[in-house]
Design a protein that fits this description.
The complex is a heterodimer.
Chain A (H helix, E strand, L loop, with lengths): L2 H11 L4 H17 L1 H31 L12
Helix pairs in contact in A: 1-2, 2-3
Chain B lengths: L5 E8 L8 E4 L4 E5 L6 H13 L24 E10 L2 E10 L6 E5 L5 E3 H12 L3 H7 L1 E2 L1 H5 L6 H11 L3 H9 L2 H42 L9 H21 L13 H25 L1 H40 L2 H41 L15 H13 L1 H54 L7 H64 L6 H37 L1 H12 L6 E11 L2 E11 L6 E3 H4 L2 H18 L6 E5 L7 H14 L4 E6 L2 H7 L7 E9 L3 E7 L4
Parallel strand pairs in B: 3-13, 3-14, 8-12, 12-13
Antiparallel strand pairs in B: 1-2, 1-4, 4-5, 5-6, 6-7, 9-10, 10-11, 14-15
The chains are: A mainly alpha, B alpha/beta.
Chain lengths: ~80, ~725
């Protein structure tokens, strides 16, 4: 049973986008090459990359926000 | 009809439990391997699987890099399996080898026409010729012990996996299980959280930036600017002006020139302001050190201090002298005091001598009285032998000692007391005089000391120190106003520099706050602008897309898996029922069916199987696992296997059964042997068993086309085959 072709066919039948078909091809290749760990690593890496970029962006926003310092209260008369 | 390949001969060397060369010629109908466990049966049968596909289905992946395939004690250090498949077309020879600690295998196939193919070409040829994949092989040809084992366990997950394996769906199941959908969902939540927090931060920062801008605008307006003039150009112009002024100030006050940096960006303004402030501070310090006003002030203070000291010293000297004179007036001069002292001492000595004399006479009288008292009859003096009148003498002596002697003593005592007291007063007066003398000397020394200081302070000659100090002070104070005027002008110039620096700072703060506000507003705009799409939005879209793709793929896998399972169940339904009926022969539940449905496990759709047994008489059914014994469940597994092998089409005319009689009772074993004997004409059987009862029953298969082997095993030689029976 050529599962790569069968699932691709099923995805096409449901009108799946090229991105989904590409992802499936990558998953099938990883599974054939490295087994379940390969699939897990593939998805984990994508998730990790997205999280890393999001964290970096959030950090940059935080840094921009941090450049605006609250004015110090003047000492003296009350 | 395609030709059917059967096994002619298997030659194995150095393969798993096999060490030295083992040759197994297979019978046309059946080949039986009988031995106790651990003698090499599974290794011999596994050699066929490995030779055809270069892999072993139930070998754990982590062991593939180790030498689980190659026998470590093999004399050649490699494994070699040679398999002869026979059909109407002739003999197909397949030979696979693998060296120890190598993953790759070498495959050589010799076709019936004598052509030799190697490796990938040979592998492709085998696939075309045999018509089945490695996955299908153990489902349609090789009934493994492990394939059956899962069905005999009550746990649904294990049973589902076992049936998926039997239906060839385990890869789909494994892929679906390997996709970490939960990880993607967690990442979505995390990124959404980050996005929300970033938006909140930006919004808060924008608010603060706006407040800062308004505040610094107010400060700048207080410093004399209006909003229109608060530009970088204005600040550059003020800085240029300040640069010139600062240079002039440094030169005027004799200090090294301070050069302000060129202003090319906003932060240069703060640098220029700070440098100006530092420079004015240094100019003030330098001015303070060399200031004529301060010098004059210090001098006046010093003169006043000396004047006060002089007055105090003189006053102290006068008072000491006055006290000394007063003392002398009372006590006289030193010589007079000393003369009086000597006279008193002489008088005291005289009084002492008088007292001593008076004391000796009183003692003699006392002794005489004591004698007369002790000798009342005495008529003569014991010293001079003259005659005495005792009573008259006794009374006369007693009167003398009580009258005149006592008056003498009292006079001497009174005179001595008066003289001693006067002598003490004279001694005290002497001490006081010495003390007053010292005080007068100290006061005079202090006056001399202060006058010496005044001479040092006022170099010009003078006669009266106090007058000289007063003259000097008057002279200095008369120059004071001019000095103060000069200092005031200098401070005004420095203050002007400071004010300009403050104005530059005010512009700097405003421009910086204005730039921050613009920056934060632009960033906030970029984050909230849906059309432009922020980086966080992009990441969220990306991860949502991944989630969507994974959902679509898992849905597709679930659908295909379910359809395939349903197809396999449907295709093998009759066969499974027939085999079950014959093998199990249950008195009531004589039918079996497998139901398949979707089940969501941790967000992944998987096939879930239910094996139900039913009565064909009244249609009542029950879960097979709750009704059937382990042996009967094994019959179910054998039924599924035997039925499935008929559903799959391929070109192999043999099946391999590794220990199929597990948990079967005698009746079931007989049924299995009967069933196998019926398969025999069309299907070559390769059966391994450790079950002695089953071995005896298998003798039913004995005949010309059947070969039976027993196995022995030693650590040195490994497995050895010994042929038995009719087919020997």
């Amino acid at each position: 049973m050529d599962i790569r072709a069968i699932i691709a066919k099923e995805l096409r039948a449901t009108g799946a986008s090229p991105e989904k078909l590409t992802l499936w091809e990558e998953i099938a290749t990883e599974f054939e090459g490295s087994g379940p760990d390969g699939v897990k690593d593939l998805i984990s890496k994508r998730v990790k990359d997205a999280r890393k970029r999001a964290t970096k962006e959030a950090k940059e926003i935080g840094e921009v926000a941090a450049t605006v310092a609250k004015p110090k209260k003047k000492k003296g008369r009350k | 009809m395609a030709c059917r390949w059967t096994v002619g001969q298997v030659v194995a060397e150095g393969f798993r439990g096999i060490n030295q060369v083992v040759t197994m010629d297979c019978g046309d109908d059946a080949t039986l391997l009988v031995a106790a466990n651990g003698k090499g049966k599974s290794s011999t049968l596994g050699a066929i699987e490995w030779c055809l596909f270069g892999d072993l289905k139930y070998q754990s992946p982590e062991n593939r890099t180790n030498d689980e395939v190659v026998n470590l004690h093999g004399p050649t250090g490699k494994t070699r399996v040679r398999l002869e498949l026979v059909s109407d077309e002739g003999t197909l020879v397949i030979e696979r080898t693998r060296a120890i600690r190598k993953r790759e295998t070498a495959l050589v196939v010799t076709k019936p026409d004598g052509e030799t193919l190697e490796d990938e070409e040979a592998s492709a040829y085998l696939f075309r010729t045999l018509g089945l994949t490695f996955d299908d092989f153990y489902r349609a040809v090789f009934l493994h012990q492990e394939s059956v084992r899962g069905l005999l366990i009550d746990e649904p997950r294990v049973r589902d996996e076992a049936l998926d394996r039997l239906f060839g769906l385990e890869k789909l199941r494994d892929i679906a299980a390997a996709m970490p959908v939960w990880l993607v969902r967690a990442a979505i939540d995390e990124i959404q959280g980050k996005q929300q927090r970033a938006t909140d931060k930006l919004s808060g920062a924008a608010q603060v930036a706006e407040q800062n801008r308004a505040r610094y605008l107010r400060d700048a307006m207080d410093a004399g600017f209006d909003e229109a003039t608060l530009t970088f150009e204005t600040s550059v112009s003020i800085t240029d002006d300040l640069r010139d002024n600062l240079e002039v100030a440094c030169t005027s006050y004799g200090q090294p020139a301070v050069v302000l940096p060129e202003v090319t960006e906003i932060d240069d303004l703060e640098k220029a302001a700070r440098k100006t402030k530092d420079a004015t501070k240094n100019l003030r310090l330098a001015g303070a050190t060399a200031s004529p006003v301060d010098k004059a002030t210090s001098r006046v203070v010093e003169l006043q201090r000396l004047s006060k000291s002089l007055v105090a010293a003189k006053q102290a000297s006068e008072e000491a002298t006055k006290a000394l004179n007063a003392h002398r007036a009372v006590m006289g001069e030193q010589e007079q005091v000393e003369g009086r002292n000597s006279a008193l001492r002489i008088r005291l000595e005289e009084l002492e001598r008088e007292r001593q004399t008076l004391g000796a006479r009183s003692k003699v009288i006392g002794d005489a009285l004591a004698y007369l008292k002790s000798v009342p009859t005495e008529t003569r003096c014991p010293v001079c032998e003259q005659g005495i009148q005792h009573d008259h003498l006794f009374a006369s002596l007693q009167r003398r000692i009580e009258g005149a002697e006592r008056e003498q003593q009292e006079r001497i005592f009174a005179e001595t007391t008066v003289a001693s007291k006067e002598l003490d007063q004279i001694a005290d007066a002497g001490k006081a005089l010495a003390k007053l003398d010292r005080a007068v000397q100290v006061a005079r020394d202090e006056v001399t000391n202060v006058e010496t200081k005044v001479k040092k302070a006022i170099p010009k000659p003078f006669t009266d120190a106090a007058a000289a100090l007063a003259d000097e002070e008057r002279t200095i104070i008369s120059d004071f106003d001019a000095l103060k005027e000069a200092a005031s002008r200098r401070e005004q110039a420095l203050q002007s520099l400071d004010n300009k620096a403050d104005r530059i700072r005010a512009i700097h703060k405003f421009l910086k706050a204005d730039a921050e506000f613009a920056n934060i507003r632009a960033k906030a705009q970029a984050e909230t602008d849906a059309e432009a799409g922020s980086a966080l939005d992009e990441e969220l879209e990306s991860i949502l897309g991944l989630d969507d793709s994974l959902s679509a793929i898992t849905a597709a896998i679930a659908k295909v898996s379910r359809e395939r399972a349903a197809g396999a169940v449907e295709g093998s339904r009759d066969g499974v029922s027939q085999y079950y009926k014959r093998l199990c022969n249950h008195p009531y539940f004589d039918g079996i069916r497998i139901e398949v449905e979707d089940k969501s496990i941790k967000g992944v759709q998987k096939n879930s199987y239910t094996i139900r047994t039913f009565s064909t008489t009244d249609g009542k059914d029950s879960l097979a696992s709750s009704r059937l014994s382990t042996g009967q469940m094994n019959c179910v597994a054998l039924s599924v296997y035997l039925a499935l092998r008929e559903v799959l089409t391929h070109n192999l005319g043999f099946i391999i059964l590794d220990d199929p009689s597990q948990n079967l009772d005698t009746e079931h074993k007989e049924a299995l042997v009967d069933l196998l004997s019926e398969l025999k004409p069309s299907t070559q059987l390769l059966i391994a068993s450790q079950d002695e009862e089953f071995q005896r029953l298998l003798q039913k298969l004995d005949g010309k086309g059947t070969k039976t082997y027993s196995l022995t095993w030693t650590p040195r030689k490994g497995a050895s085959l010994v042929a038995h029976g009719a087919g020997k």
